[in-house]
Amino acid sequence: MGEALHEVSLTVNGVVRQARVPARRLLSDFLRHDLGLTGTHVGCEHGVCGCCTVLLDGAPVRSCLTFAVTVAGQEITTVEGLAGPDGEPSPVQRAFAECHALQCGFCTPGFLCTVTALLRDNPEPDELHIVEGISGNLCRCTGYQNIVKAVGRAAELAREGGEGTA
Predict the structure, then answer these.
(1) Number of H helices, E strands in the chain
(2) Between 61 and which of 41, 53, 56, 98 could a Cys-Cys bridge form, CB atoms 3.0 to 4.6 Å apart?
(3) How far apart are CA 35 and CA 160, in angstroms?
């Protein structure tokens, strides 16, 4: 007899999605393998690097440390859900591109989700708050200077456009 499967239904990027999964299916695997949303990256698989960060009811969480069954009924926003309904990049996405805040791009989805929540909670962060806010995400390529600049620029873009950061 195989492992018991559990029906998991949650809202992902504004759409109710569901799948039958084992109790120990990680949210990162649920998103990538069961739902086909491959924008969420898995790096260290220990919650250290932040590549797998998604928004759970608006709060950044490590999807590689979260069981899918524990978030049933909740709302998840992945990097695929950050753009506007018309596909227009969010201020955070625009700022990361404008400020060259990525190189290989592997860590970028986690940074984008983290920064989206950071700017929602603190729309005008100073450099110290930015550095502290992104400290849970690792990047092996950039040296962080352009990422810090991009967070500041995203805050400016959001204020200029009178829009939120998501």
Answers:
(1) 5, 5
(2) 56
(3) 35
DSSP bridge pairs for 26: 67
Q: Which CATH class is domain 5-81?
A: alpha beta
- List Cα–Cα distances, 54 to 19, 42, 63, in angstroms: 18, 11, 6
- C-alpha 6/C-alpha 66 separation (Å) is 15
Question: Which CATH class name applies to 91-161?
Answer: mainly alpha
Of the candidates 63, 97, 98, which has an alpha carbon nearest to the alpha carbon of residue 77?
A: 63
Q: Which of 110, 109, 111, 106 is nearest to 146 (CA)?
A: 111
C-alpha distances out from residue 22 to 3, 8, 13, 45, 77, Å: 7, 10, 23, 18, 22
Which tens digits make up the pLDDT trace of 93-121? 999 999 999 989 999 999 999 999 999 99
22, 5 Cβ separation under 8 angstroms: yes
Q: Domains of the chain: which residue ranges?
A: 5-81, 91-161
**pLDDT digits 0-9 by tens, 14-72:** 999 999 999 999 999 999 999 999 999 999 999 999 999 999 999 999 999 999 999 99
Phi, psi of 134 (to 5 degrees): -100, 5
